[in-house]
Amino acid sequence: MQAVAKILKSFGTDGGLLVSGAVALEELDNREPVYIVFDGLRVPFFILDLKEKGSRYILHLNDITSLEDAEEVVGREIFADVEFEEEEQTDFTGWQVLDHGTPVGEVSGLEPIPGNPCLYISVKGRGEVLVPLHEDFIVSIDEKHHILSLNLPEGLLQL
Question: What is the pLDDT of residue 89?
Answer without folding.
Answer: 60
